[in-house]
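Hi R.,

Here's the chain you asked about this morning:
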Amino acid sequence: MPDLVHHAVVPAKRHNAVSADVAAAACAAFGVSFPVTIIDRAVVKNTSGVQRLWPAARDGLRELLEPTKFLRKSEYWMIFGVYTVTYVAANCTDSYCTAYDYDATYPKLTATTLVNTAAAATKDRTFARMFGSRPPVALPKASWALFFVRDLMTMTAAFNLPTPIANKLVERNLSSRSVAHVVSQIAPVCLIQFLSVPLHLLAYDLYNYKVGECNRTWLTRARFIRGEYLKTLVARSCRVFPAFGIGGLGNTWLRNGFSHD
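And here is the predicted structure, written out as tokens:
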């Protein structure tokens, strides 16, 4: 009888965990997708030369005055989809590893990177076609590779670094557990942008000006990256702050709340 009870309870617990994982992911993604949509669209327009960064961002903020109209935009739901599946991948992998007493570090990094890279690169390609300056073409393999490395860096900072950083801050009496949790979730994803922004800019430049199809030299590309670096760094930091900083905290908080209901 005890074995029968055990086998009946475990699947129920797993079902509840998956439900909490998915619900938390969707709720967190719903909120963060508003600012991320505005920033992503503005960055693509600026990179392709269609519109300058800050005017494009300002236009997006004006659209938020009509939220129901904003919710009808396909780009919003693309962003929502990207972050929902990314949070779901992180949550479900963590739940699975916890249930079977595995170390979730590498499985979670692998799952979130593969899922986010596939979803985000598809979104980036679609945004480049929707808001770029040239007719739709296939995304170059080099751009795919750059997006993969960019997202690998972001996923590491968002899902793997926060826990060890928070533990170190507490162990060294540098902050309380609650403050360490917040700092470790927000700081890494913002700081990693210093390294990933050049990859992001180069990926879009290779899309807009393919190698062999124009006279654009690598020196010209380097100058383009240098010229766009600072404002793109600010924009990307503003983007990952809600997406993986606030969104990460919200996802964790919601997941814990749903799991205990």
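One quick note: The chain has ten helices and no strands.

Cheers,
M.
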